[in-house]
């Protein structure tokens, strides 16, 4: 089994653009969208279940405790990282009812070439919720509170823990997965309590990643002007006793980056219709 944390689905590690995810094929006119072969959806009675997902050998997917609101954020964002406030409308239960999904696709489910985004899973998930939850949604632009990610120092020097990356990233393709002995050869983001480490990431990806933190709570747009790929390491206080400024201070002192409050036109997903799922 290859577990993946919830953030891999919700934080798509791409600039904020609502377009088709890399690796997913657009269906031809009149053809059926990409879909799981079989899928079971059952309501999870717990109101506080942790949302978790794992990919299994042979095309299996197991998702536990997901709200439909979260599933829509994932399936319709297509490369964006959306905050909860960027998904609007729908009946009240989309924010409360939780569901477990067990699905099977034909063949192994592929990540993108860098192993960061399970693009096939996201495309199949969209088909699943449209079929079983009768979801209809559309994308609009709304003006809302946001943050601009900028270089914090006037001389544009970067912090001590932000460096140009020379990482040798693994490459994924069908039938070829980096060997277990290459455990230290990875790229992307890794988060642990009170720390974030990332390799070979772009500034739009940094903006997208940190917009998913509860203490940020707003969409974040990259305005750094920094191109290329970088390695970062951030340490900050996290937990019920940590003040909300700890992450912002750490980003400033350790990376030389700052979040500036602004109002901006941001994409939102509007739920036009949703129904509780049809029986298995």
Describe the structure.
With 280 residues, the chain is an alpha+beta fold. It folds into 2 domains: 2-142 and 267-273, no CATH class; 144-265, no CATH class. 36% of the residues are buried. Helices cover 18% and strands 32% of the residues. The protein has a 5-stranded antiparallel sheet with strand order 1-3-4-6-2. Strands 5-13-7-11 form a 4-stranded mixed sheet. The two termini are 24 Å apart. The protein contains 5 helices and 13 strands. The protein is globular. It has helices spanning 6-10, 68-77, 119-132, 203-211, 245-255, and strands at 2-4, 38-44, 52-56, 60-67, 87-89, 98-104, 136-151, 162-164, 188-192, 195-201, 220-222, 230-235, 257-273.
Mean pLDDT figure: 81
Main sheet summary:
5 strands, antiparallel
Count of helical segments?
5
Percentage beta strand: 25-35%
Compute the number of structural domains: 2
Low-confidence stretches: 1-27
- One letter per element, helices H and strands E, the order comes to EHEEEHEEHEEEEHEEHE
> What overall form do the CA principal axes indicate?
globular
Count of extended strands: 13
User: Percent of residues in helical segments?
Assistant: 10-25%
Strands of the widest sheet, in order across it, are 1-3-4-6-2
Summing up helix and strand content along with how strands pair, one would put the structural category as alpha+beta
- The radius of gyration is 19 Å
Terminal-residue CA separation: 24 Å
């Amino acid at each position: 089994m290859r577990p993946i944390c919830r953030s891999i689905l919700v934080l798509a590690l791409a600039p904020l653009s609502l377009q088709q995810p890399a690796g997913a094929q657009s269906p031809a006119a009149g053809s059926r969208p990409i879909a799981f072969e079989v899928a079971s959806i059952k309501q999870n009675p717990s109101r506080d279940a942790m949302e978790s997902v794992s990919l299994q050998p042979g095309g299996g997917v197991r998702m536990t405790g997901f709200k439909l609101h979260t599933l829509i954020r994932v399936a319709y964002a297509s490369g964006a990282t959306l905050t909860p406030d960027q998904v609007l409308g729908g009946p009240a239960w989309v924010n409360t009812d939780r569901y477990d999904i067990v699905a099977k696709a034909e063949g192994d489910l592929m990540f993108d070439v860098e192993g960061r985004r399970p693009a096939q899973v996201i495309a199949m998930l969209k088909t699943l919720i449209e079929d079983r939850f009768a979801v209809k949604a559309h994308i609009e632009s709304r003006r809302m509170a946001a943050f601009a990610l900028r270089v914090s120092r006037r001389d544009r020097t970067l912090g001590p823990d932000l460096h140009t990356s020379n990482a040798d990233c693994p490459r994924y393709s069908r039938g070829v997965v980096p060997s277990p002995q290459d455990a230290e050869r990875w790229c992307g983001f890794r988060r642990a309590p009170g720390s974030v480490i990332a390799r070979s990431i772009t500034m739009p990806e940094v903006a997208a990643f940190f917009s998913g933190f509860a203490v940020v709570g707003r969409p974040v747009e990259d305005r750094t002007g920094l191109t290329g790929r970088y390695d970062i390491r951030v340490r900050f206080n996290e937990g019920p006793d940590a003040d909300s400024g700890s992450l912002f201070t750490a980003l400033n002192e350790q990376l030389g980056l700052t979040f500036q409050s602004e109002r901006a036109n941001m994409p939102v997903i509007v739920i036009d219709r949703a129904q509780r799922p049809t029986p298995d």
